[in-house]
Each structure stands twice: as structure tokens, then as C-alpha cells.
Design brief:
Blueprint: E1 6-12, E2 15-21, H1 26-46, H2 52-100
Antiparallel strand pairs: 1-2
Helix pairs in contact: 1-2
Length: about 100
């Protein structure tokens, strides 16, 4: 049975955002909002003259870069697993060839 959504309010950059979320995702969403707000505070300390919109853009860019790096690493892992399977196939073919010879 599908769970119904719950309504929550999340504060980001001193703005309140009402959201409808799966109850299982509420803690993750709140944790993400907390992380973003903490990053905003740290950017405010480093760059006092910047607008909160600038901080949100910087955070979005950093998260995008991290996401792409992670996706790239996953592809590399998949390629290694694929290469390993190819090597096993090659080993099997070589073993069979030597048995015939």
C-alpha cells in the first residue's frame, strides 16, 4: 500500500518552503536543508558582501560537481567490472585453446 504524503515546512536561506513529502524521506530532506543552511553560514563568513542567492548558486554548483564526480566514479567501477568479465572470458578461451593444442 502506498504511503500518503505529509506536509512539512523547510527553511532555506531564511525562506520557508512548504513541501509535500514521503514520510520516509522527511528526515533526509530536513538534514539536506540543515546542510545547505550551514554552508550558507560558512559562505557568509568568507564572503560578507555576497547575497544569499549567490550562496545558493555556489552550493548548487558544488553539489552538481560532486554529483558528476560520483557518477563518473560509478561508471569507472562499472567499466572495471566489465573489463574483469572480459578478462575472465579471454582466460577461459585461452585455457580451452591450450587444452586442444
Amino acid at each position: 500500500m502506498k504511503q500518503s504524503l505529509i506536509n512539512i515546512n523547510v527553511m532555506l536561506a531564511e525562506r520557508l518552503y512548504p513541501l509535500s513529502v514521503d514520510p520516509n524521506e522527511e528526515a533526509t530532506i530536513r538534514q539536506a536543508a540543515k546542510m545547505i543552511n550551514e554552508k550558507i553560514k560558512s559562505y557568509q563568513q568568507l564572503y560578507a558582501a555576497k547575497d544569499k542567492q549567490d550562496f545558493l548558486a555556489m552550493i548548487a554548483l558544488n553539489l552538481g560537481v560532486d554529483n558528476l564526480k560520483e557518477a563518473s566514479q560509478e561508471v569507472s567501477s562499472t567499466e572495471i567490472i566489465g573489463d574483469s568479465a572480459s578478462l575472465k572470458e579471454l582466460q577461459t578461451l585461452l585455457d580451452a585453446a591450450f587444452e586442444l593444442g
